């Protein structure tokens, strides 16, 4: 009767979540720093986009202030490090309260993702608005595409 509680994990079709988890386990790449290899439910969630001029990383971290997230880049790896505290009322005298379902993560976290070659780290910028951190990583000038004008004689 209570053998398969996985179907309550998400609102997707029953069995789809189990299948996705099974595929992740079968084709896992332990130690990989690629966004596609991050397990479901990792914190903070991120979106990464690339244009001809820059790479933009959006860190979706509700409840974090500017000082709660440390952002660094080394050897083309972006690392996000921080801590998110428990919500008020979640803990009683240092102990967790009983909970039927808990989806919000608290505690220390580290996320690392690989970046493409040619990022100009010296011109990198980060902003935060309403718990969404935007990291702008411009490409080095010599790597940006240049248009060559065709001259006529």
Structure overview:
- It is a single chain.
- The chain starts with 15 loop residues before the first helix and ends in a 15-residue tail after the last strand.
- The protein has one helix and nine strands.
- The longest helix is centred in the first third of the chain and has 11 residues, at 16-26.
- The chain is elongated and about 80 Å long.
- It has a four-stranded antiparallel beta sheet with strand order 1-2-9-8, with no helix packed on it. Strands 3-4-7 form a three-stranded antiparallel beta sheet, with no helix packed on it.
- By secondary structure, the chain is mainly beta.
Tell me the major beta sheet: 4 strands, antiparallel
Instruction: Kindly report how far apart the N and C termini lie.
Output: 84 Å
Cα shape = elongated
Give the integer mean of the pLDDT values: 77
Strand content: 25-35%
Task: Give the total of beta strands.
Answer: 9
Helices and strands: which structural class? mainly beta
**What's the SSE pattern?**
HEEEEEEEEE
Strand order of the largest sheet: 1-2-9-8
User: Which consecutive residue ranges, at least 5 long each, have pLDDT under 50?
Assistant: 1-11, 31-36
Helix content: under 10%
- What is the C-alpha radius of gyration, as a whole number of Å? 21 Å
Instruction: Enumerate how many helices there are, as a single number.
Output: 1
What's the quick description here?
It is elongated, with a radius of gyration of 21 Å. The protein has a four-stranded antiparallel sheet, with no helix packed on it. With 153 residues, the chain is mostly beta strands.
């Amino acid at each position: 009767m209570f053998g398969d509680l996985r179907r309550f994990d998400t609102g997707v079709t029953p069995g789809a979540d189990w299948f996705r988890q099974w595929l992740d386990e079968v084709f896992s790449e332990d130690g990989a720093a690629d966004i596609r290899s991050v397990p479901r439910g990792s914190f903070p969630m991120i979106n990464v986009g690339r244009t001809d001029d820059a790479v933009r990383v959006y860190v979706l971290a509700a409840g974090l202030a500017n000082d709660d997230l440390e952002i660094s880049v080394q050897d083309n790896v972006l690392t996000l490090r921080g801590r998110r505290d428990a919500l008020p009322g979640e803990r009683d005298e240092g102990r967790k309260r009983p909970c039927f379902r808990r989806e919000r993560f608290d505690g220390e976290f580290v996320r690392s993702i690989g970046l493409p070659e040619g990022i100009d780290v010296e011109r990198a910028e980060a902003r935060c608005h309403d718990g969404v951190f935007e990291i702008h990583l411009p490409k080095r000038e010599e790597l940006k595409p240049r248009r060559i004008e065709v001259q006529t004689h």
